[in-house]
Structures are given as C-alpha cells and as structure tokens.
Specification:
Elements lengths: L5 H28 L13 H20 L5 H22 L6 H17 L3 H16 L1 H10 L2 H20 L15 H25 L5 H11 L1 H14 L4 H26 L1 H4 L3 H20 L18 H24 L1 H15 L1 H11 L9 H26 L2 H23 L3
Length: 430
C-alpha cells in the first residue's frame, strides 16, 4: 500500500478491531444464553479474543506489505491456525464436534487482512454476514425441523433451473415477427424470477410458521400467489364460517402484496415503465392495506382458526407450465399488437390477467423495452392495469361464489373499492 499517514493507517486496524469485536460479542452472547451450556463448556473465544483476531489479520497483511514478501502473511497466520486446530481437538474430546466458532475465528482473521488491503466494503459485508449467520442458529434449526424430503427436492429443482438450464439456453429470437419475442433465455429467466419469488415466500412461511396469524400468512403467501391464497381461504371458510373477517384479512393482504409485486417485477424488467404505474399501484395497495387495518381491529372470535402453511409451491412441472404460459402470452400479445392494434392487446391482457398477473406483467414489461417489441410504455401500463383489475375481479368472484356468508360480506367492499380505484387512477388520464 506504500507509505501512509498514521490516521490512514489506523483506519483499517480500527475497522478490523470493530468487526472482530462484533463477531466476538455474538459468540459470547450465544455461549452465555445457551440453556444447555456448562460453566466449563463455553466458547474458546469471546469479545476480546475475536477483536484480537481481527487485529492479527490486519497486522499480518501490514507486515507482508512492509517486508514486500507475500509469504510473510501465511507464515504469520500459521500459529493462529494451529491454535484453532488445538481448540477444535479439545472441543472434540469433550464431545463438541461443531466447527462454527473456529471457522468464524478464521474468517475474522481474513477479514482483518481485507481491511488493510483496502477491501473495506467486502470486509464489512463479510463481517455482517458472519454475524447474521451466527445469530440465526435457532431459526435455521426451526426451519430444518419443518423441512420434508419434498422441500429438499424442490430446492434442488430450483437450483437446476437456475444454475444448469438457464446458462445453456440460446439468447436469440426464434424467428421473425411476431415470433421475435420468443427468446428461450429471456423466457426462462422469467421462470427463474417467478420461481424465486414463490420459493422465497414458501421459505419465509416455513421459517415463521403458520401460527403467527392469518394476516402474516396472507402477507407471505401473497409473495407466492394471491389467487392461491384466495382459493385456500375461501375453501377453509366453508368449514369455519365464524372467521370470515380473519380470512378476509389474509385475502386482502395478499391482494395488496400483488400490487407491490407487480411494481417490483416491472422495476426489474423495465424501470422506465414503472413511472406510469407506481401511482395507481401504490394508491390501490395503500387502500387495500387501510381496509386490512379496519379488519384487523374489528372484533374477532376469541380463538383462532386452524392454519396451514400449505404445500411447497415450487415444482418443476409448475415452472414449465409458467414458461409455456409466459411464452404464449408474449406471442399472443405481440401478434395482437401487430395485427389488431392496441384494442386487441388490451383484450388479450384482460383474458391473461384473469388467469395470472405475473405472466402478463412480465410480458408487457418485456415488450415495452425499446430493444425488444417497441410497445409504447403507456399501452403496456394500461394492459398491466387491466390485467390487475381483471385478476382482482376474478378472485373476488371466487370468494363471492364459494365463500361463507361472513367472508362474502367482508370481501365485497374491498373488491369494489380496489377495482374502482385501480380503474380510475390507472386508466382515466390516458
């Protein structure tokens, strides 16, 4: 690094010390609060030791630089490695086979070296990540205890479509218009995006558990599918008719999440399009959440209905079906734009939105990119708004036709309000 002023030199040492102390605090806290620990069975390192480890790494990097010999760095770290090895051997002799603290100590030393090498952002990120991983031991164990073989296989399938299938797909259009929008790589990228959202929602539900309340279930399930939440709550309301407001709360929260999810998807695919959508989407979402607040504070039965986290939403078959649906909607929308003009595109959006908002949102965001379909942003925004209105009306119809009387009465006001506001704000000024 060359000659540095004392202040500049002390800065990386200070950051290395701070990161080490932070990780050490967590290790010491975890050891003191472990209900199973014994007095002589605590972690070998605490706040002071981890702080010193950060300084050891930074000092080793400093001396290697001053002596202009990279070999100095591993030689200086060798004693620290031997101490960690002895610590693990001692812990293993007492029946503790874990390596968590030892690896955290090793990483702390390396993070200290990164601080001196001016990789401060990476060093801080690694320190925070280490602190977080060490702190969520109980939550991870709870998550693992709820996992099934189907969950593990679903995770494997998600990794397959993301890391194996996606990179080998051709990133070119299949043919001339209207087939120019059918790009295998981009279509599968959308499959990965939606599958990732679904998988995240499912993992969160597994981690939190269904007993936290129907409102949280609706929030997390809304990341997966607001239509699925609507169907599930509607079906359950028939056997538990007294909890109509509770089920309505979960349903409307999922609907609100849908509008937020649309904005996230548009922002990822075509950020300029978001400027035409965010007002109507945000206001509609806030109105839905306001009604949720009313339902939340409304009188409820004293006991809680049975809840279920549901089945794993990610299956390879479902991913393939979505890919086909997305490609079909992309092709139909492009053909409608070419041969029937704007009105044909709107009609196809209404039909597509009745079945799935994700596919039509992603396809409109893709087609409105200048390098793809050349669709006007205003037209794409109108099509997305029509799809969300159509989807909301269909979900409301599901409740009105299949829900308990209490649920139907609770869901009718937000259905009318949400559809009306979305239509007025989204379509009136074009």
């Amino acid at each position: 690094m060359g000659a540095m002023s004392p202040l500049t030199l002390f800065y990386p040492f200070g950051v290395a010390l701070g990161i080490g102390v932070l990780i050490g605090l967590q290790r010491e806290f975890a050891s003191d609060t472990n209900p199973d620990h014994k007095t002589n069975d605590k972690s070998f390192a605490g706040t002071r030791t981890f702080g010193l480890m950060g300084l050891v790494g930074c000092t080793a990097a400093f001396l290697a630089d001053e002596l202009a010999s990279p070999l100095v760095f591993p030689l200086l770290l060798l004693p620290a490695g031997l101490f960690l090895l002895v610590s693990y051997h001692h812990s293993a002799a007492r029946g503790k086979m874990g390596l968590t603290t030892e690896f955290a100590a090793l990483l702390t030393i390396l993070v200290g070296a990164l601080c001196y090498w001016e990789q401060m952002t990476l060093a801080v990120a690694l320190g925070v990540a280490t602190f977080a991983l060490l702190s969520i031991k109980l939550e991870v164990r709870q998550l693992v205890s709820h996992l099934t073989r189907a969950d593990v296989l679903a995770t494997l399938k998600f990794l397959v479509i993301t890391a194996i299938i996606l990179p080998v797909l051709p990133n070119d259009a299949l043919a001339s218009a209207p087939f120019d929008v059918l790009n295998p790589y981009k279509i599968w990228l959308m499959v990965v995006l939606i599958s990732g959202i679904n998988f995240l929602g499912y993992v969160l539900m597994k981690a939190v558990g269904p007993q936290r309340g129907l409102s949280l279930t609706g929030l997390l399930s809304g990341l997966v599918s607001s239509t699925a939440v609507t169907l599930s709550m509607t079906r359950t309301s028939k056997s538990q008719p007294n909890f109509g407001k509770s089920f309505a709360l979960a349903i409307v929260i999922a609907w609100a999440v849908m509008f937020g999810r649309v904005m996230v998807q548009v922002a990822v695919i075509n950020p300029p399009l978001l400027r035409l959508l965010w007002v109507s989407m945000t206001v509609t979402m806030l109105v839905a959440l306001a009604y949720c607040a009313y339902l939340y504070f409304a009188p409820q039965p004293t006991h809680h209905p049975d809840e279920s986290a549901g089945d794993n939403p990610f299956e390879l078959r479902i991913a393939l079906q979505f890919g086909l649906l997305y490609g079909a909607i992309l092709l139909i929308s492009r053909a409608a734009q070419l041969y029937f003009g704007t009105q044909g595109l709107y009609f196809s959006s209404i039909l597509a939105g009745a079945a799935d908002v994700n596919a039509i949102t992603l396809s409109m965001a893709e087609l409105s990119r200048p390098s793809v379909g050349g669709l006007a942003d205003e037209t794409a925004a109108q099509a997305i708004i029509l799809a969300t209105i159509s989807n909301t009306i269909v979900k409301g119809g599901i409740v009105l036709m299949g829900g308990s009387p209490t649920l139907r009465r609770a869901i009718l006001p937000p259905l009318i309000i949400i559809a009306t506001i979305a239509g007025i704000l989204g379509l009136s000024h074009w």
